Amino acid sequence: MINSKSSPEERQLSFETCSLEQTYEVGSKIASMLSFPSCIYLVGDLGAGKTSLVKSIINSLGYVGEVTSPTYNLIQEYKVGQGVVYHMDLYRLEDPSELEYLGLDDLWSSHSLFLIEWPEKGEGFLQRANIEITLRKIFDSSVNHRNIVLQYA
Ligand SMILES: Nc1ncnc2c1ncn2[C@@H]1O[C@H](COP(=O)(O)OP(=O)(O)OP(=O)(O)O)[C@@H](O)[C@H]1O
Ligand SMILES: [Mg+2]
Fold first, then answer.
1. pLDDT digit string (tens) for 12-21?
2. Closest CA to ligand 1's atom 25
3. Does the chain have fewer CB atoms within 10 Å around its N or its C terminus?
4. What is the CATH classification number for the domain harbouring 75?
5. pLDDT at site 8
6. Ligand 1 center–CA 52 separation, angstroms
7. Ligand 1 contact via 50 beta carbon (within 6 Å)
8. Which residues constitute the domain of residue 89?
9. Per the structure, how many domains does the chain have?
10. What is the per-residue pLDDT across 17-47, written as a single tens digit (0 to 9) for each?
């Protein structure tokens, strides 16, 4: 894992990872820097590594157990020491207004962490993000190369 850029002025942190394990290390680092409440958007193509990063963040926050992708039920909840993590994957959302039925406003409290994959599908119906993480596959000699950029609001 290479931390290629760290600039508080730009409110941006950038990592390069060359394996799933290194992405897990980035997730663990992000978990150690997080404060509750937070709303984090994860942006990137299919297979970029959003769920992998989320899994490592949730496990690093102390959740012992498998973190599964919430693709079919939109939202999954995990209790951790600092509060409750809500992992959302909105890929299959057909209309952002469907989010009204989830009652997200009621879930948002000082002890909440929202981790939202495909936030662009829920535009207008989501909590504003204080961190946006963009994951990109880097197409070079390794199929496992990823760039992970944290942008703080
Ligand atoms: N450096 C890396 N970081 C993360 N994942 C990697 C890396 N190298 C290879 N992979 C592989 O890429 C895949 C990433 O899948 P993951 O489900 O995390 O992506 P995703 O962005 O959540 O996709 P989706 O939009 O479908 O939910 C996994 O199969 C993982 O093993
Ligand atoms: Mg995913």
1. 999 999 999 9
2. 46
3. C
4. 3.40.50.300
5. 57
6. 6
7. yes
8. 2-152
9. 1
10. 999 999 999 999 999 999 999 999 999 999 9
